[in-house]
Amino acid sequence: MIRLVGGLVFAGVLWVLNLRLGAALVVVAVLALSLISIVSPTAGTRIDVGIAKVTAPIARSVATILLAIVYFLVITPASLFLRLFGRDPLISPAAAGPAGTWVVKPRSDTTMVRRQFTLEPGASAGTQQGRAATAARLLVVMVSALVLLMAVDLTLGTAYVSVRGALDSDADRRASTAAMVNESWAADYFEELHDVWPNRFAWTPLLGLTPPDYEGTYINIADRARATYVAEGEGDDATSVYFFGGSTAWGYGQRDSYTIPSYLARLAQDDGRPVRVTNYGQPAWVIWQELSLLQQLLAEGNVPDVAVFYNGHNEVGQQVQELTADPSYLQASSVKNAVDNRRLRGSLAGLMDSFKGFYKRHSILVRGAEAFRSESSGLAPTPLLAETRARNAVELHHRAVEVIERLAESYGFEAVFIWQPDAYTTEGGDAASFTSPDREGFGQAYLDATALLGPPILDLSDSLDGVKDAVFIDEVHTNELGAEIVARAIYPHLSIEP
Predict the structure, then answer these.
(1) What are the φ and ψ backbone dihedral angles of 279, each rounded to 5 degrees?
(2) Is the pLDDT of residue 471 over 90?
(3) Per-residue confidence at 348, pLDDT binned at 50, 70, 90?
(4) Distance in angstroms (rounded) separating the CA atoms of residues 310 and 492
């Protein structure tokens, strides 16, 4: 029973830390050992003895570390405080002299700590005495303790980051969602996706992270655009449609030929309308980055007949990351920090910043403190904060829309602006499983932003309402069925000549 309860508690801790695979393995192992012990007590005893032999050195190591932490973080500071003020709790108040009733035990060798009740003769001569010597020794002990604590902290933190990163990968998590679990290609797709995004994306001035040319089984990129379905018999007279947006437009969770842009090309083909759709969606982009790319394309002489902008989620996400009323993009502060750190490279300040950044990423204590602060500080935002985030997101979006409309009028193309659906705006289906807990308050901000929309924005945030099949792989990205449904909602709003 002790093993069973202890194992289940440990599995629960792993589950809370989002180490789901580890928790499942622990539960299976504990249940199996418990069953063996019930069926065959002799075999159970042998297993217990074997486990004890394996865990004994681990237990000694953990005990040493825990005792060292208590000694250096509790006992040593208290002792230092008392000694600096000349107080010794071991001195009896009724003692006749400063030495009290204690017998001085001379120091001779390191084995003395294991012979605490014997008086060792031959005390070493010349040992430093007094408060200064005591303070110096305590300083050495505290520095050593700090180094030991940092080493243990970084070791445990690095192990945690490595294990969690391996267990929490896209291939392990999103491929197993209800929307993807029946797709035989899902695991291979997410491994390929992890290879290209964000590992291969490079920083481009004025745009942000942009993709390289890439050839894969499910993902292919050339000249900033992801491969899109090409209709049969498409010629030079086909209507040119440029599709801009973030990762949902790019097709996160979908193969090349089954993204929203690809389904638009398929729908046009079914209608007998020659259309050539180019997918310029980019993961983690907002509309101001899309505007910059559009300007580059126009300057290069690439003018579409129709330009579709599919946005919303990242615009609000940007405000959740950092409130701003100025055009910006996701992770802008991270880029700024990277630039500042590069400027300081080689200097003492740069070295300190690099060390602090490394320690923060790999410290188990820092991660624990941040998790505790997140849970205890009540990150659920106020209605006023949600409203401010929504207002900033919509106003910035509208300002970009005004610039794009003027470009469209000047260059002679049509601009269509879509406000996208996500799990927070969707009723029914599997959407509710991705909306709780909403610790950062994104959902309310997105709903508030949707309520503030006006022309010429087409609000299609409800286009996934009532879908009974599972379509979401997280709070915003969908499988290929979701992409098809959204494309069918967008298609009637495109002016495409037959």
Answers:
(1) -90, 100
(2) yes
(3) low
(4) 15
DSSP of 238-284: SEEEEEEESHHHHTTTS-GGGSHHHHHHHHHHHTT--EEEEE---TT
What span, in angstroms and rounded, lies between the C-alpha atoms of 302 and 59?
A: 67
**Domains and their CATH numbers in the chain:** 2-82 (no CATH), 182-351+366-493 (3.40.50.1110)
Residue 99 binned pLDDT confidence (cut-offs 50, 70, 90): low
Structure tokens at 68: 């060292």
- Convert 146-183 to b/e letters by CB count within 10 Å (16 or more is b): eeebeebbbebbeebeeeeeebeebbebbbebebbeee
Give the separation between CA 182 and CA 70, rounded to whole angstroms.
Answer: 51
Report whether 343 contacts 337 (CB < 8 A).
no
Helix axes 332-343, 348-362, angle to 10 degrees: 140
pLDDT, tens digit (0-9, with 9 covering 90-100), for 407-435? 999 999 999 999 999 999 999 999 999 99
| Global confidence as pTM | 0.68
Amino acid symbol at 33: L
Contact predicate 461/312, CB 8 Å = yes
